[in-house]
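Hi there,

I know you've been waiting on this one. I reran it after we fixed the sequence typo, so this is the corrected version. Both the input and the resulting structure follow.
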Amino acid sequence: MDIFKDLENKMYEDNLIDNKNLKKLKFESVNSLYKELKKEKKCIFPNCKSRSIKKSHTIQKSGSLNVIAENSHLLHPYFDDFADEMTFIMKQIGIGEASTFPGFCKQHESIFSVFEEKKDIDTISEGILQAYRSLCRELVIRRIELKNSQKTVLKYKSERNRQAKLLVESKIHQELRNVEIEHDDFRIKAANIVKVKLTEKITFLEKMHENFIDAINNNGINSIFLQALKVDFSFPVAIAGLGYLNILENNVERQVVCLLNVIPFESSTVLILASELHNEDILLEQFKKLNKHPFHILNFIESFMMHGTDEWYIKPSIWNEMVQGKQDYLLKYLFTTKKAFIEPLEFSIFDDVRKEFLDRFPVDDKFKNQELKKLDFKFETINTTLYDSILERYDDFYSSKTE
């Protein structure tokens, strides 16, 4: 029948639901997510029945975020949910909101005061606590995102069925009880990938959460891999996020997940790497490299910002002093790259820091030329759109599942 052909065409041409209703669904989904992120939850600390406060900081406000803030504000990469075209922007955020999540009750929030009050991290136990709360943020946020994604899919399917019902009724001039479409379009496929990926992350994070609690209770790191490094230089960025690395070993893919914290203080910066204990062979080698030269630390931080996580906060003047072409390139690159966090960047983010390091620290000519090339990098337009990048990831995801 022509009715079904018309219905099929509208589905495959993605105009069964008009733009107005699509935008409405999108707004409702984003609004629902933001509301959940601001609601009190059950305290994430094991066996605690208390409600969390609304804003647990992953990175301490006093002594860290305020060190790199300007006028009490920072900048961080942000996926603009309401833009007509998928895009990353740099968003201004107050230090009272940066890195917050509904995580701990008042009692368990106080366990971090041991280093927050002195505005420093200088013991392994304090490093464990700092890494632990950044892990907890990831776990809480991913759980909220998964729940919200599932609700969004149900609303989308309901609206799609409603529009299909209206279309069929207009053709046959008869009221129907319901019309149900079973086809998985690209939005539902995307949601399915999100569900799989978030579930995988949550499973890993829940396991790591148990290991961290064991490390906290036993005042040691026998259940996790954790290394910390303190340098007498305050980097103008704060990071608390996850990075992923896929390795092929004996034709079997192995995924290494690394938790990185870069915590700036007035005259120093603390770096903390954490992961599952069995990833020590990969990450310890990387950590040892950081100890060899300050440039390795700078390069690792920049790489993690682009290849690891978008959960970072930067001093506003650093970003604002970049030329527009560089800003556009970094935001596009951040989303479209497929490189892992241990792979080096070809370009510089912190030009002034790099120049200062070149003046302060001796390096051989070969290494110096490599660093100078990063400063001279030509930031040309990345033609791949975020939408095309997402579709490519869908194809990669489904092809890998069928191999």
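Quick highlight: The beta strands are 56-57, 73-79, 88-94, 100-101, 225-231, 237-249, 252-264, 269-275, 312-314.

Best,
R. S.
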